[in-house]
């Protein structure tokens, strides 16, 4: 469970990486794709996001420009980073260009060297686990965190994916204390799994105990928290592809 900044290529080479920024970037991406969004271009830099959106619009591609910093919509941007901004009637058939404080940075940092990068959240945890099992490669779970710090909600979502994988591939793991598991889990993954067992019946409760969850609540974004806590609402698993600037970000 490395954070984006701590990623070293050796941990990622050839693996399936799953990136989590539950509050709210990956939840927003999963929601947009589930609601018919044509594709999401994840960008780190604000000016580059504006440039990408202008380029796509110039090519008559229907595009939405969205950005967040510190939980707020970037001044001058038409859209922010709430998943509730992207119902089908708004996002269907369009390309979403998104830049956020932590999530898009983690996604774009993970793409180097991995075999596949999946976008994970509580909304699609079971579908992510099923796809990771089908891909049959080592899995690295990347938690975006907040400003480089540990994030309870991201680790909870990672733990939900681990729990789903264990139940699919090694159900005895949960009940046996002695049988060597067939799934080789890192200790951090075991810790995340137990976090998931603790909050499985009510993931929303975890957001009341997380720093970023409390911040968003204080900003009047309780509806976002309710949405992002909704476990296994969608079966979509967005896959991140490296879009090179010189290729004009093909979607
Ligand atoms: C992030 O990328 O750090 C989050 O998505 C921030 C937010 O939207 O509150």
Automatic annotation (TrEMBL):
Group of enzyme by EC: hydrolase
Gene3D superfamilies associated with the record: ComB-like
Record's catalysed reaction(s): (2R)-O-phospho-3-sulfolactate + H2O = (2R)-3-sulfolactate + phosphate
InterPro entries per record: ComB-like, ComB-like_sf
Record GO terms (molecular function): 2-phosphosulfolactate phosphatase activity; magnesium ion binding; sulfopyruvate decarboxylase activity
Keyword vocabulary terms for this entry: Hydrolase, Magnesium
Any Pfam family matching the protein: 2-ph_phosp
Cofactor(s) needed for function: Mg(2+)
Bilayer-spanning residue ranges: none
EC number in record: 3.1.3.71
PANTHER family: 2-PHOSPHOSULFOLACTATE PHOSPHATASE-RELATED
Family statement drawn from the similarity comment of this UniProt entry: Belongs to the ComB family.
Name recorded for this polypeptide: Probable 2-phosphosulfolactate phosphatase
